[in-house]
Amino acid sequence: MKKKFYKKTLILIFGGAVLFTSFGFKSDFFEIAKQIEIFTTLFKEINMNYVDETSPADLMDTAIKSMLTDLDPYTNFWSEQDVQSSRINMEGEYTGIGAALKQDEDVLLITEVYKDYPADKAGLKPGDKITKIGNTKVSDFTEGAQALLNGSVNSAVNITYQRQGKTQQTSIKRSSVELKAVPFYALLEDNSGYVVLSRFNQKAYEETSRAVKDLKSQGADKIILDLRGNPGGLLSEAINVSNIFLDKGELITSTKSVIEKYNKEYYTQKEPIDTKIPLVVLVNGQSASASEIVSGAIQDLDRGVVVGARTFGKGLVQRPKEIAYGTQLKITISRYYTPSGRCIQALDYRKRDENGKAVRTKVEDYNAFKTKNGRTVYDGGGILPDVRLESSEYSSITRALLEKNAIFNYATNYYYQHDVQDPVKYTFSDADFNDFKSYLKSTDFTYKTNTEQELEELLITAQSEGFQQDILDSYKQISLEIDKSKAEELDHKKDEIKSVLQDQIIKHYFYQEGLYQNHVASSQEIKKAREVLNNPGQYAKILQN
């Protein structure tokens, strides 16, 4: 273990030398050297003198993560496994079992199974919890256990998993897995071409352009580009996807930084497919980064109508930097701006509140910008749609239900208790919703609102100043009112929550394909998109106002 320490120290010292060469232009290089010396001395003393055995690797990992957390959530240290996962996500292809997983305490939770891939053929289902891969326990890993499922084509891997409390085993033969950028597209009965773009990997432009061309050949005379839930990806692909509908030479986005070399403008480089076909872009609060670049460019250049809810507001640009031993530093280097000059980023990590949280721009502080046609649009983070729909917006209770896996876990239980035959006709009923509320009570589901957090902080402050007893009765009364409002919120957001539950349940039964088939039949956003596209007067008015 001591050898690991000296190895780490050498890396850190080498890193210090790199800092001098990379940041020699900064006036604070002496301060950097001073702090590195302090840290290495402290690190050495802890590892050599602490009362119990220490893990230098764990200590270093904690130190690195704590330092980066002080910057922003996107500047991260990537292990070799993280680098590999990023490569897979960007290339859209890997060799494995064909399932989406996340490490959940001592198990790997299967959150999605890809149709006709090895995991699906072996009978694995969403909600299954993998406990062993071969003879290796998942609990032996704090992270990175997923890598054990990857391997060469046709190689076998034995898996032990839990389903509904029962332990089972299976053997899976690995295969090449393709992560499609466009998992679904279809010509609708009104000649609208519907295209789902789920990620901006290296195949995004190729697959999107192919889908648009195919739909046009089938008779599509208008396009719906669905970016809901798309977390982003490659900037180059965002530029090229925008280029499908915009002329060559159009400014799509610019980046700005205190470092001059990162100040750049990005223009379309290809010949477009169709610059005239009526276009609607669907977005929601989970549409981020590259999705916001595309929707922002389409809106600012008045090329199409944006429908849905304000996007995520992830406008910080990252670039991976090689460090050592196959690891990388994914570091924020600049900010994205739309063609009109709006900053996409919602949270300002340079400004923090008293709790250390990044500050969001207040509505009254938004700045106005003009689109190509002279329409007024605003910054404030993310892209605010031309047509806003409540069905696209996630309330605090819905976000809490998703974050705590309440919706996913209920959908898993539902799958084993109900027989659903048709993804298009299926609807999550009011009776089902009442059952969901009972389920939440049985699991003691709770969540904390921002108001509750602020009240707790107020009570702590009052206690420190000797006023606790004076405000305690009022605090209890307000807390009771909040609890009552939270209980009512579940019913108030019933339609929103039902929609999310319905989506998750359909994916359990019918994979992504079934989900999109259901969306075409019942999605409020798609209905609104078709309404706008089928009314040329309304479409033109939106783009002129």
TrEMBL record:
GO cellular component: outer membrane-bounded periplasmic space
Leader peptide range in chain numbering: none
Family in the record: Belongs to the peptidase S41A family.
Name of this protein: Carboxy-terminal processing protease
Pfam families with a match to the protein in the record: PDZ_2, Peptidase_S41
Entry keyword Protease: yes
A molecular function GO annotation: endopeptidase activity
The keyword Signal appears for this protein: no
Keywords: Hydrolase, Protease, Serine protease
Record-linked PROSITE patterns: PDZ (PS50106)
SUPFAM superfamilies associated with the record: ClpP/crotonase, PDZ domain-like
CDD domains: Peptidase_S41_CPP
